[in-house]
């Protein structure tokens, strides 16, 4: 006999996702950014020390790494995860590192505590997180956090990914960073008025 998860669990998954306060607002922005950039866009949250990919949309030229809605990954390996991690309080960051560790996926993964803490500081200064082949060779990504205006807690992040030859430093600085930061800021403002 072959066993599989029954469809009755689909309701539980979509119900759980829909309970995330910023999901509805992020969903429309994800679709809009995918259309505008032509790349793969994700809405990511943190739960139990992992990055969870709640909703994704593909533009005209996406790469499709092995992620689906509901997938999870180590925070330190992804741009979306690092954008969130950078805005958690220091004790929470340390707890996550101690509990989950910093396993590498590629030779580019930051797997040293001091290096990661320096990268998180740079992420806060830049306003975006970067992933340069840290989760998958040939893949670059950038992400902006979605921060609650009053509590200053990260609600999630918007992440854009694509092949390294298209998501270059110059393209990031010539508009992609500002685009993703602007979209995240719109969600932050709208969440505060819900």
Note down, in words, how this protein is organized.
The structure is a single chain. The protein has six helices and six strands; from the N terminus they run ααβββαααβββα. By secondary structure, it is an alpha+beta fold. The chain has a six-stranded antiparallel sheet, sandwiched between helices. It is globular. The relative contact order is 0.16.
Question: Which terms would index this structure?
Answer:
194 residues; alpha+beta; six-stranded antiparallel sheet; 6 helices; 6 strands
Number of strands: 6
Strand order of the largest sheet: 3-2-1-6-5-4
Structural class category: alpha+beta
**Average pLDDT across residues?**
88
Helix content: 40-55%
Q: Regarding quaternary structure, how should these chains be classified?
A: single chain
Question: In one word, what is the shape?
Answer: globular
- As a percent range, the share of strand residues is 15-25%
Largest sheet: 6 strands, antiparallel
